[in-house]
Please model this.
Amino acid sequence: MALSEADVDHVARLARLEITPEERARYRDQLNAILDHAAGIAGLDVKDVPPTAHILPLNNVWRADEPKAGLTRDEALSNAPDRARGQFRVPKIIE
Amino acid sequence: MELHELTLTQAAGRLASGESSSVELTKAALKRIESAEPKVRAFVTVDAEGALKAAEAADARRKNGEKTPLLGLPLAVKDNISTKGLRTTCSSKMLEPYVPPFDATVVTKLREAGAVILGKTNLDEFAMGSSTENSAFGPTHNPWALDRVPGGSSGGSAAAAAAGFGYGALGSDTGGSIRQPASLCGVVGLKPTYGRVSRYGLVAFASSLDQIGPLTRTVADAAVLSGVIDGHDAMDSTSVPRPVPAYGADLKRGVKGLKIGLPKEYFVDGMDPEVSTAVRAAVESYAKMGAEVREVSLPHTEHCLSVYYLLATAEASSNLARFDGVRFGFREPAESLVPQYMRTRAHGFGPEVKRRIMLGTYALSSGYYDAYYKRAQQVRTLIVRDFEAAFKEVDVIATPTAPTPAFRIGEKADDPMTMYLSDIFTISVNLAGVPALSLPCGFSSAGLPIGLQLIGRAFEEGALFAAGHAYEESHPWKDRRPAL
Model:
């Protein structure tokens, strides 16, 4: 299933990446080359093989629900590209 | 021998005996950086002022009778590990101005143990690459041959350890990013067991694979650093509550009766003949030291690269969604929010990072999830089982770390598939979650270092230190230093 330039556009939208026409063509070729290589796993019999998400036998790791000091508001905002009134500022999203 | 040429263990000895102060060792490291860093470019940020302050504090602590394991020793930290108040860029334009408001747990542990942090080392952007050429701030050069890559992604940490910019460094390893640069720079690198070291404060690339580990001049030094950074941390739900063994005792265990396996799938035609010869000679010397060597099989080896590039990119596409220009880092302003996200990410990320985000997004997208992501996770299970079966027969698996010595800067930069192949011997270890050590096992005829990889059972780093130390003590490689 070779990727078309339209597929590349769709994926770029999902990934929130603006791409140039030149990148569109380059990613199509490079992703197809990588996916061709990955096609090798399509031939393996994996019926009844459970997926491994990670190798530890850990599920739902909880710690005691005790309040602790976190970052202060100023620390949390210290790297913000734009801030106003103690909050992150972004362009208007609702007209 | 000059102060910057010592091993970490030797430097610790001088501090303990009072022959040197931390200020002296730190000044020696900074002087070495001043003279050789313009050629090597191992660092994104050098913090001379902070380092000297920490050195003075360490000398004062020693005067008060403290004896913590790293007290006064100058070290470097990869620039994807958060350091409070010290810029942490991931070698990306996206995080160029980012100053973390907190320390990673490993950095807290280094500071508590008395380490002096010299600065932050260069990497392939967001740890994605095998040559450190993908850094937004320019490539790092291999101290053994300045026209060659140091490997990657922890290329700056490996080059720093090799060049004498401190007595070791921390790196991170998702598919070989500690071991492959260690191999190419002639130093020791350990990828610990998944869950052994807290990743709190490591900027996430692929969460089911990433581990932090040491790069040092000797196996004994790696054991010292591991003793400090290993252990459970409530801030990382994937860190495992197991006690950390006394690795110093493991160093003396020797290799008599140790069963070493050679996976037949890793010794194939087409490997660089000098690499093959050096690794086989190392295995031969293990046999002479009383180890039992036999062939083993890891039958799904040929699928590791595919599985890795589907899973690691899928996880990366999710982890890197946080770089949206809202809370930290680079922003390219636009009239509304979605175009702002898209432009910020288009111009904040470099080409390799974008390529991997694209591939991972595709592998997770509706209609392709089962064929790619889920199937890769199932094949990962087969790879895990391969290692489980092999470790029923042997204690340690030996392979080359990288298929070739260091390649030239620019040589593979235009072909992602060829570049990915330089991790062919290291990625299976991350997929299986087991620990692996790379240590120098010789030099090519061109004078380039060659690395041996020793893979162990989960949480048996001690066996790797034992085997690695027995080898390094009986060979001259650890005493060689690059002429810079």
User: Anything to note?
Assistant: The mean pLDDT of chain A is 92.
